[in-house]
């Protein structure tokens, strides 16, 4: 058992920003990295909208953030959180595959994953024409044609955004009515670059000789008819799944499973904070996650200061670490 002041669960931009701030506050945070350091940013091939970097690869930006946190004393543990116990208040139990931590404060930055179509060509197409973020990757499709899969607000909003770059954006939706809000629908239908294919699912993503996307295999869900539709890019917006399962009913979640926080990034449990995509359904940018991680860390630092007289000195805990 290890006794810590702050444990940060997750190492995306929110977790890395929280690590820098809590480390500079001399709290020696422990960051449980999870599957992939940097989360989704860690596998983004190029980032052009993080202020200060005209262009940087996701792994390079993540490595700089990690090194920044480590420089000030953050410890990065390459392990996964298996379970947590927030039910008895601080100190909280965070159990990984190889260790159990008792932490006075916890910052949850465990993120959300874009939902996958789970079709042939999808996984291998990432970085070769398949994307889950128009804001991140739209610029690479200047003068090209792309398809957008999905019929919700994200599909239309990102589709409209993509018309800044692409000559044609075709929304492929599995029904003949959109889930997106009426105003977005009006804007999408009024945009001459937007096209729609209804009642259709994408069965496979196809690649040309260069190894980049050159089409999608479609099937009409009403007629069963199949076809190949040429395209240079496939943007998939069929929702996100927040990684909140490990919390069970210990943290208040909204109807979509996202952790509910207040303006100070406090969760429903006093001493547990959350930042980044685990609590942000809307913006999902490296820059916004960094801001949220910073705010959550500052809240945690203030919370620890306010509760200093109730916290057990770390060296008095006979936890066998
Ligand atoms: P969403 O509302 O859940 O929409 C997902 C879309 O993907 C739906 O049209 C759904 O089809 C389709 N879909 C789901 N699984 C699919 C599959 N396996 N194959 C093909 N299509 C599939 O997700 P979202 O658009 O990401 O929005 C999430 C939340 O954020 C919503 O509450 C939304 O209002 C909000 N949001 C708001 C804004 C804004 O206000 N500007 C912008 C973005 C997001 P069906 O319709 O048939 O179910």
Can you describe this structure?
- The protein is built from six helices and 17 strands.
- The C terminus is likely disordered.
- α1 runs parallel beside α6.
- β13 and β14 form a beta hairpin.
- 22% of the residues lie in helices and 26% in strands.
- Strands 1, 2, 3, 4, 5, 6 and 17 form a seven-stranded mixed β-sheet that branches. It has a five-stranded parallel β-sheet with strand order 8-15-9-10-11.
- With 321 residues, it is an alpha/beta fold.
- Bound molecules: NADP nicotinamide-adenine-dinucleotide phosphate (NAP).
- The site of NADP nicotinamide-adenine-dinucleotide phosphate has 17 residues, from α4.
Shape, principal axes of CA atoms:
elongated
Total count of helical runs of at least 4 residues = 6
| Pattern of helices and strands | EHEHEEEEEEHEHEHEEEEEEEH
Low-confidence stretches: 317-321
Backbone CA Rg:
22 Å
Q: Look at the helices and sheets and give the structural class.
A: alpha/beta
Helix content: 10-25%
Keywords summarizing the entry:
5-stranded parallel sheet; 321 residues; elongated; alpha/beta; single chain; binds NADP nicotinamide-adenine-dinucleotide phosphate; 17 strands
Concise account of the structure shown:
By secondary structure, this protein is α/β, with parallel strands linked by helices. The chain has helices at residues 13-24, 58-71, 134-137, 153-162, 182-190, 286-306, and strands at 2-9, 30-32, 75-77, 81-85, 92-96, 100-108, 112-114, 130-131, 145-149, 168-172, 194-197, 200-207, 213-220, 226-230, 233-236, 240-242, 272-274. The protein has six helices and 17 strands.
């Amino acid at each position: 058992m290890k006794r810590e002041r702050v444990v940060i669960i997750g190492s995306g931009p929110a977790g890395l920003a929280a690590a820098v701030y809590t480390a500079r506050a001399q709290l020696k945070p422990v960051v449980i990295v999870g599957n992939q350091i940097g989360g989704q940013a860690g596998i983004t091939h190029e980032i052009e909208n993080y202020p200060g970097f005209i262009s940087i690869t996701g792994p390079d930006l993540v490595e700089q953030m990690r090194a920044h946190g480590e420089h000030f004393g953050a410890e990065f543990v390459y392990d996964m959180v298996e379970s947590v116990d927030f039910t008895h208040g601080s100190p909280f139990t965070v159990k990984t595959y190889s260790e159990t931590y008792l932490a006075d404060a916890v910052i949850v930055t465990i993120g959300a994953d874009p939902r996958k179509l789970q079709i042939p060509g999808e996984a291998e197409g990432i970085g070769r024409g398949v994307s889950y973020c128009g804001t991140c990757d739209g610029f690479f499709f200047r003068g090209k044609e792309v398809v957008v899969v999905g019929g919700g607000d994200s599909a239309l909003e990102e589709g409209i955004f993509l018309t800044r770059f692409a000559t044609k954006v075709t929304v492929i939706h599995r029904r003949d009515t959109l889930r997106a809000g009426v105003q977005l629908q009006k804007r999408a239908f009024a945009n001459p670059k937007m096209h729609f294919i209804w009642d259709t699912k994408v069965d496979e993503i196809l690649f040309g000789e260069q190894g980049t996307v050159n089409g999608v295999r479609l099937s009409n869900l009403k007629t069963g008819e199949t076809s190949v539709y040429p395209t240079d890019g496939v943007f998939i917006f069929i929702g996100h799944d927040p990684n909140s399962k490990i919390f069970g009913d210990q943290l208040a979640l909204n109807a979509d499973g996202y952790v509910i926080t207040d303006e100070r990034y406090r969760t429903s449990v006093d001493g547990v904070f959350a930042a980044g995509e685990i609590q942000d359904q809307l913006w999902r940018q490296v820059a916004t996650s960094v801001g949220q991680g910073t705010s959550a860390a500052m809240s945690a630092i203030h919370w620890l200061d306010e509760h200093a007289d109730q916290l057990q000195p770390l060296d008095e805990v006979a936890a066998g670490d």
